[in-house]
Amino acid sequence: MKYHQIDRNLFIQNRAKFSAQMKPKSVAIFNSNDIYPVSADSTLPFAQHRDIFYLSGVDQEESILLLFPDAPYESQREMLFLKETSEHIAIWEGEKLNKERAFEVSGIKTVYWLQDFEKILFEMMTHSETIYINTNEHYRATVETETREARFVKWWKEKYPAHTVAKSNSILQHIRSIKENQEIDLIQNACNITEKGFRRLLSFVKPNVTEYEIEAELIHEFIRNRSKGFAYTPIIASGNNANVLHYIENNQACKAGDLILLDVAAEYANYSSDMTRTIPVSGKFTDRQKAVYNAVLRVKNQATAMLVPGAYWKQYHTEVGKLMTSELLALGLLDKADVQNENPEWPAYKKYFMHGTSHHMGLDTHDYGILTNPIQANMVFTVEPGIYIPAEGFGIRLEDNVVVQENGAPFNLMRNIPIEVEEIESLMNA
Q1: 40 Rama sector, left if φ>0, alpha if ψ -120 to 50, beta otherwise
Q2: Which pLDDT does position 170 carry in this prediction?
Q3: Which end of the chain is more exposed for a tag (fewer CB within 10 A), N or C?
Q4: Which segments in the chain show pLDDT lower than 50?
């Protein structure tokens, strides 16, 4: 892995939080992701399942974590199962975790090779009554590929039909949404790498540069700072491309006078950052572009201040909608009649700002978090309002990542990334 080894105490803490919420006499199983094939012998780069990583720090394929807090013997309460490594594997694929390194990474003392899993699981099943299965219940999830986790669930139900089933996701949605300080430090590192990439762009962008050349500059800067690369598929949208919310072709030339909407960010140690900035191709905003930009910036700053403990996600978005409505009226994009006659299910402002303002972030860019629960300290959110005007040939979105504080305003993890019009223009024309 490119990243520095994470202190295993983070994973020890995470397991303790999960185990504390398990039912008596219950077992929880977590599987790594598969390596997905492309064609012939080609595969996609491996990306670890975030849940097993969150609970163990293990970042390789063919791994299983078993938790059994009420096991008869202490050595059975936390167990890792890994693909057995060898000199041959080390030569062809690189070093894999052996039992000693697995303990250093995870803090788990009991480590077996994967071929022993079924035998040991059978013994654990004779002492347990409930098994926690790990299904993906994220509100944005659409899963069409059968995962390693799904195959395990199918196999387990046939093998042990008399056991009660419980869901690990209910626990993980809560504990993963509230970050430990060490996790916030890792997200901060991802944000710092993103900052380096963005500052590199400000001196690189000029008329006729292509969107994919900008993408190349970013990936260069990210990887040279120990990131695997983009935390998500980058959006580099010049001109009217910015009005396609998930534009990812990144294949057009950037024209003089246009704006570029950049929704791009680095990951670090599997933790995401999530940044959006909008910059002028020619290094200077027009008066109209500046007016719209500053309207978006005001909404972002005011929305950020609303992310406090006890607030609710749904009401928060309603209040942000009111802020945006006021700005759109001032810009002449809406009039009073538009607002008076609006459909409450799709308010007038949605014509120009059709997506949400904030989502949880962390190990996943759209991270775990139960949206009907009140916001709590140490949750990390994006704040990303936008105004999209196809008729004028540009769209503007601005996005920072913030940590909710017990008292006071959220802490902005992207506080050092240029965002004010004057600073961006100054850096682009230096």
Answers
A1: left
A2: 94
A3: C
A4: none
